[in-house]
TrEMBL record:
The keyword Hydrolase applies. Residues 379-579 form the 3'-5' exonuclease domain. It comes from Aquibium carbonis. This is DNA polymerase I. InterPro entries: 3'-5'_exonuclease_dom, 5-3_exonucl_a-hlix_arch_N, 5-3_exonuclease, 5-3_exonuclease_C_sf, DNA-dir_DNA_pol_A_CS, DNA-dir_DNA_pol_A_palm_dom, DNA/RNA_pol_sf, DNA_polI_H3TH.
Length: 995
């Protein structure tokens, strides 16, 4: 190598995990071998090499190598045995692909370099040093922060997913320090993924400020006593040794004893037959065709190569933590790629064609979507099996099938399938009617099947193998509904993509993703400039509305096929945004895997005892009647208790109680808060009204209504879960809503006794203990809270002791109750006014409590201030797993609107992180149960921080420890929680006893 040469070093281990997480699971059709990561790796490498060999643009490499980690054990483990100790084993379906990816690299005629005892980053550092000494330039293909310490005059990095070059200014912009200080910065901040300890409480911004002030780590440690902030000073002094060992762990070795010198890395022209042979063996048809065209080889005469599939211990490779290190913005979505570092250095628009970056792919797709008109007259009604087979064959060719079912009900466990629509390409959509009838046209339906429809069973038999074909991605809008319905009919549908959930991940809470913003009609108007046919336009509304089986087939075709067509167009536009916006990981790990998990939970339902509900309904009715008599006696007259106007006239007109306010209509306000305030002041009538409202609501909402939700076929209640209805990622349920049953009242708990296990089985309730406070202690890094949770101390008693100086032993219940109110209130941004109302104390006293709280736990105030600043700067906040909650109105000029958004922004990372933890647990739970031989243990319900299972009595003792373990370790390996998660789990005959 000489001056003027250019070395490209690909971080192969990073590519593996980008490839693995980029696409839906993929298997080789001939034998089911997992090859998704191999496919993604080959496609990314080919795109990079095509660009690298394009002499018309920018820099052309003369030397090229792909560097891999040999294993997770290196010399660093001798320095610090806990290094990377918290990483779990790689996914089972990824293990056999490690060896295949190395064979793929060799098929590309590229050096495949690894060395036992060293990480890939050390090898990259060594080659970069040698190239620099030879006078050559180096480009490292990676975005890993660990490699940024190498950036300099002759060494740059290139992030292929963002199509972005990283030089010295970019490092400073990102981290606040130049590359030569990255080692010291990482020594201070540590790395939870690699288990590098760092200094607790020191984040990147603080570390950069300290290094700017003191120059380097050694000077900082020597002069730590000069740091003004008490907490920061004490933490650095106490953890100086951790900082020093962390520096040695993050410092890259550039003296690795390499076997191959730089000259071995000379870039060779691609060997078409060799590469095609490997690709044919892997059955990568599309890439085989592109390589054949580029190299002039005749793929038809080339035989598949012999490959070796390494499994189990033979297949060494980086552990799963390497995948967790990859920033979410690096995870490529289907159809997204990059032109490579060459394209970023002056590539023309023509040179970029066919290999778009995520950002320009999004722009291109958005322009195409707005420019393309939607022609409903082009939609087809499929009335015979031959035509249906032709359409499904096209789906296999394109690899995508947009599908939507038309039914007789909004509830999939009750609905009957009337027909389904499909789309295989934008504008190519059809409707398959199955059960349209003639009749009177009323809600009761009736009548005979209309002619020209494929027999129901025959259509489903043809559809079934395509729905199960993992090489065809099924796309839907709220596809969980279709999944449940089709699963009832014996049809398995996988893999799945959901445009509603993609939109939810991208724009949750933003102006484009507020209430109703993820519905198809709203998305079509926003992104396609198209107004969809309204359901009422085909089925009528009010008394004249009919079920879909009574809709004319031609009108049904225009409506249904449009749904499938629009969904496909939205998917093409929105899916690349996940990559461009850095949100692929959120969608792929928290949303998409949960679709069929929730679908199975909805299918299972839960048993409800009608007799218990009937008895409770009678009890509530008697109690409400007794309260009514008390209310009339206290009011001095009979009136309509349910009438806010009449109640207001009694309380504020006749009785003249203080604290009255009026609504916008001029009536007295009788809201729950006002009644609670009046009751707290000692007024009996408002207290009776509150109790009456609670009882009558429980009776009407649950004891009277729940029997109507019992399915006539399964004899169980099947709630419907909504995945995209909150800004924080919390699930909600409806029909019936099982998440709002009160648990802090005796009456509410009685309702839970009606949810029962089947004979010979038990219900298991597994509930996270104070998870939001634990998340707060983690994100705000509060030493006292962390220690209390680690020691299993009563957190509210500890808080009271810290604040009020009262010993934990023998603490009065009222003192603990006040601390508990503050603990939970802080999470929701409670004000002095709110706390005063909650504790029935003067506002000044409540303000003093809050002030004292922040003095004892200053990290919480820091967290709140930093979170509000971040929200104002970016317009959103993030959970610890990267989910975004948007608050565009946090900059509003209206103080009340602004304050509300600030409180919501403070709470969202905490509540959202807790919601993400339980989502991760749910995604993993079924596989872990099956692996342990506990497939008869079924997950039935999710209620906020609680999961409810049903299990045979004989399996309960084995199931509970496993369920608890999965839930308590759900954050790993993505996030190493500073605070242990704790789950309480019990089994009983009904839900109340199990909780």
């Amino acid at each position: 190598m000489k001056k003027g040469d250019h070395l490209f070093l690909v971080d192969g281990s990073g590519y593996i995990f980008r490839a693995y997480h980029a696409l839906p699971p993929l298997t080789r059709k001939s034998d089911g071998l997992p090859v998704g990561a191999v496919s993604g790796f080959c496609n990314m490498l080919w795109k990079l090499m095509v660009s690298a060999r394009d002499t018309d643009v920018g820099v052309v490499p003369t030397h090229f190598a792909v560097i891999f980690d040999y294993s997770s054990k290196t010399f660093r483990n001798e320095l610090y045995p806990e290094y990377k100790a918290n990483r779990s084993a790689p996914p089972e379906d990824l293990v056999p692909q490690f060896g295949l990816i190395r064979q793929a690299t060799r098929a590309f005629d590229l050096p495949c370099i690894e060395m036992e005892g060293f990480e890939a980053d050390d090898i990259i550092a060594t080659y970069a040093r040698l190239a620099c000494e030879a006078g050559a330039d180096t480009t490292i293909i990676s975005s890993d922060k660990d490699l940024m310490q190498l950036v300099g005059e002759t060494v740059s990095m290139y992030d292929p997913m963002k199509d972005r070059e990283i030089r010295v200014p970019e490092v400073i912009e990102k981290w606040g320090v130049p590359p030569e200080k990255m080692i010291d910065l990482q020594a201070l901040t540590g790395d939870s993924v690699d288990n590098v300890p760092g200094v607790p409480g020191i984040g990147p911004k603080t570390a950069a400020q300290l290094l700017e002030q003191f120059g380097d780590l050694d000077t900082l440690l020597a002069r730590a006593s000069e740091i003004k902030q008490n907490k920061r000073r004490e933490s650095i002094i106490e953890n100086a040794d951790k900082a020093r060992i962390s520096r040695e762990l993050v410092r890259l070795r550039d003296d690795v004893p390499l076997v191959d010198g730089l000259d071995v890395l000379t870039l060779q022209p691609p060997n078409g037959p060799k590469l095609i042979g490997f690709l044919k063996a892997m059955e990568f048809t599309s890439l085989t065709r592109r390589v054949a065209e580029a190299t002039g080889a005749d793929a038809a005469v080339i035989d598949p190569a012999d490959i070796v599939v390494e499994r189990g211990e033979e297949a060494h490779g980086p552990d799963v933590g390497a995948g967790e290190q990859v920033p979410t913005s690096d995870l490529a979505g289907k159809g997204a790629g990059s032109a490579g570092p060459v394209a970023s250095k002056g590539a023309s628009a023509a040179a970029m064609a066919g290999t778009p970056t995520p950002a320009n792919l999004v722009a291109t797709r958005a322009a195409e979507a707005l420019a393309a008109s939607i022609d409903r007259t082009a939609y087809v009604t499929i009335r015979d099996l031959d035509t249906l087979n032709e359409w499904l064959a096209d789906a296999r060719e394109t690899g995508v099938l947009s599908i939507d079912t038309e039914t007789t009900s909004l509830y999939p466990m009750e609905a009957e399938l009337v027909g389904f629509s499909i789309a295989t390409r934008p504008g190519k959509a059809a409707y398959v009617p199955l059960a349209h009838r003639n009749g009177t046209g009323d809600l009761l339906g009736g009548g005979e099947l209309l002619p020209g429809q494929i027999p129901f069973a025959e259509a489903l038999a043809v559809l079934k193998p395509v729905l199960a074909d993992r090489s065809v991605l099924k796309i839907g809008q709220n596809i969980k509904y279709d999944w449940v319905l089709l699963d009832r009919l014996g049809l398995t549908m996988a893999p799945l993509d959901d445009t509603m959930l993609i939109s939810y991940v991208l724009d949750g809470g933003s102006s484009s993703g507020n209430t109703g913003g993820h519905g198809m009609d709203r998305l079509a108007e926003r992104w396609l400039g198209h107004t969809c046919i309204a359901y009422k336009d085909v089925a009528g509304s009010g008394k004249s509305q009919v079920t879909f089986d009574m809709v004319d087939i031609e009108r049904a075709t225009a409506y249904a096929a449009e749904d499938a067509d629009v969904t496909l167009r939205l998917w093409r536009l929105l899916k690349p945004r996940l990559v461009a916006d850095g949100l692929t990981s959120v969608y792929e790990r928290l949303e998409r895997p949960l679709i069929d998990v929730l679908g199975r939970m909805e299918r299972r339902g839960i048993a409800v005892d009608r007799q218990i509900l009937s008895r409770l309904s009678g009890d509530f009715a008697q109690a409400a009647a007794a309260l009514e008599d008390d209310i009339y006696q206290l009011a001095g007259e009979r009136f309509n208790i349910g009438s806010p106007k009449q109640l207001g006239d009694i309380l504020f007109g006749k009785m003249g109680l203080a604290g009255a306010t009026k609504t916008a209509t001029g009536q007295w306000s009788t809201s729950a808060r006002i009644l609670e305030d009046l009751a707290a002041e000692g007024h009996d009538l408002p207290r009776r009204i509150v109790d009456w409202r609670q009882l009558t609501k429980l009776k009407s909402t649950y004891t009277d209504a729940l029997p109507g939700f019992i399915n006539r076929d399964t004899r169980r209640v099947h709630t419907c879960y909504s995945m995209a209805s909150t800004s924080t990622g919390r699930l909600s349920s409806s029909e019936p809503n099982l998440q709002n049953i009160p648990i802090r009242t005796t009456e509410g708990r009685k309702i839970r006794t009606a949810f029962v296990a089947e004979p010979g089985r038990k219900l298991i309730s597994a509930d996270y203990s104070q998870i939001e406070l634990r998340v707060l202690a983690h994100v705000a890094d509060i030493p006292q809270l962390r220690q209390a949770f680690a020691d299993g101390i009563d957190i509210h008693a500890m808080t009271a002791s810290e604040m009020f100086g009262v010993p934990v032993e023998g603490m009065p219940g009222e003192v603990r109750r006040r601390a508990k109110a503050i603990n939970f209130g802080i999470i929701y941004g409670i004000s002095a006014f709110g706390l005063a109302n909650q504790l029935s104390i003067p506002r000044e006293e409540a303000g003093a409590y809050i002030k004292k709280y922040f003095e004892r736990f200053p990290g919480i105030r820091d967290y709140m201030d930093e979170t509000k600043a971040t929200a104002r700067d970016k317009g959103y906040v993030e959970t610890i797993f990267g989910r975004r909650a948007h608050y565009p109105e946090i900059r509003a000029s209206n103080p009340q609107v602004r304050a509300f958004n600030e409180r919501a922004a403070i709470n969202a990372p905490i509540q959202g992180s807790a919601a993400d933890v339980i989502r991760r647990a749910m995604v993993r739970m079924e596989a872990e149960l099956e692996k342990a031989g506990l497939s008869d243990v079924e997950m039935l319900l999710q209620v906020h921080d609680e999961l409810i299972f049903e299990a045979p009595e004989s399996l309960v003792d084995k199931a509970i420890p496993l369920i608890r373990s999965v839930m308590e370790n759900a954050a790993m390996p993505a996030v190493a929680m500073r605070v242990p998660l704790h789950v309480d789990a019990r089994a009983a005959d009904n839900w109340d006893e199990a909780h």
